[in-house]
Fold these 2 entries.
Entry 1:
Amino acid sequence: MKFALFILLFIPLSRASIKHFPIDDYDYRPGHDVGIKTYQAFSLHRTNKIVLTFDDGPHLIQTPKILDLLKSYNVKATFFINTAPLNQEKLLLAHRILKEGHILAGHDYNHRDNNKEDEDLFRREFLLSLKDIKNIEKEAGVHQKGIYFRFPFGYYGENPHYHHLNVIKDVSHEIYGENCINVSFWDIDTKDWGPTMSSEEIAQNVLAHMEGGWAPTVISENNKWKKIRIKIKNPPQGGVILLHDTKKETFHGTKLILEMAKEKNWEIIPLNKVKEFSFKNKECDYK
Ligand SMILES: [Zn+2]
């Protein structure tokens, strides 16, 4: 009984409940601390709550369409952007993302596999991409607490010489004075990046992860993408959804997801309202 009470008192104070990933005071080990399964938004599972995230933009045609759509459904999302390709037109879209109340998040400078970069290059470009986003905030007149980051392809931790998460914590201390960069993966990969996925299949993939059933997905076979269906027996029934505002099928796929959410009472919440991705009482002010 006493032990149970101790657990109850201890759990709310544990670091994992305060900051999801990367955690403070932990030295991540290359080749050991890898993968994304451990870092899902478990607090959303079985709640029918979802978070919409769009990667790889902004895209001059698709991003404005998706922003209009989100506005018409009064839904907020997170956009993980690469900052090297930003030209004047794309910068304006990044401003629009912020001004319309969405989260602007980092997806690195280029869309490269960070495992193939040495520590110095990763650190330099990662820092550059964060500075770019902070400048966009300034120009747009919107201040964001801390920042969210997603590795291109979700690849990290496999370079034998360093671990990306230790670098990220270092950089965070440099620019925020504390651990304020939250790394986000996803719970539901719509596979909208697959070359053969239709809008209906993107939405069907989400439905299968919410209610169980057959999910259209893509696999690599003989260096070619092949579409298959997999049975989702234990659906998470909530979580962070991965989409891409660079794919033309994604706009209508998102519309179908929004319609399903309305019909089935799924709640769409922003990333910063998820327990694992909250900054809690931290200041997280960019120096
Ligand atoms: Zn990406």
Entry 2:
Amino acid sequence: MTEQSIPAPPILKLEKVIKTYHSGHQSLTVIRDITFTVPPGESVAIIGPSGSGKTTLLGICAGLDQPSEGAIELCGHRLDQLTEDQRAEVRNRKLGFVFQNFQLIPTLTALDNILIPLELRGDRKAREQALDWLAKVGLADRGHHYPVQLSGGEQQRIALARACVGNPEILFADEPTGNLDDETSQQIEDLLFETHARIGNTMVLVTHARELAQRCDRVLRIRSGHLEEVTDHVRS
Ligand SMILES: Nc1ncnc2c1ncn2[C@@H]1O[C@H](COP(=O)(O)OP(=O)(O)O)[C@@H](O)[C@H]1O
Ligand SMILES: [Mg+2]
């Protein structure tokens, strides 16, 4: 076999993942049995109705949450076998995550929120890159503002800048255009795909936006705790 014909190992691999939430005497199985892989450089959209487990699945893929059963391999690490500190280390070095509710740090300015992941990595050009991303998301003049002084859409753009600024190998984004008007959505979408084209990173996006899903290589739908390929997906 020539070198070219050997497929690259997946950057993300889930095997027989199950997630059950327990509260009091009640339990709710949100993810029943999910197995899937994502090769490096692919863009994947995950769709599904509200409450179907998209956020849960994304959190498990990124090592923010633990499955009840099953194995997760991310960037060559078996996440389910690592300690919390080791998982945090993998997250800092390898991935970016845009939360559905942004989760900006309220006591830090917009600029400092973007700076955090770079400072954790000890990046010497941190400030320059953070300012660059602040401008990319159209908020160059808002760097000194605190999250509470920003609208939902502006907070979302800061969250996106924070997730992308370190050029992560894999970017997870939970409804990254969910709170934005059409024009801003389009800008954010373009920014995501420009970054994807520039650095060749992997993207796993949860989205309700048809246009965003259509730009991805592959669309997966979560239904009744299972993940299925959307076979009539045509990339635009
Ligand atoms: N920490 C939790 N404890 C108990 N139930 C939860 C928890 N997080 C989510 N759920 C429930 O799991 C289901 C899936 O939630 P979620 O993953 O947020 O779905 P989606 O992102 O597709 O809207 C919902 O019924 C939700 O109420
Ligand atoms: Mg959700």
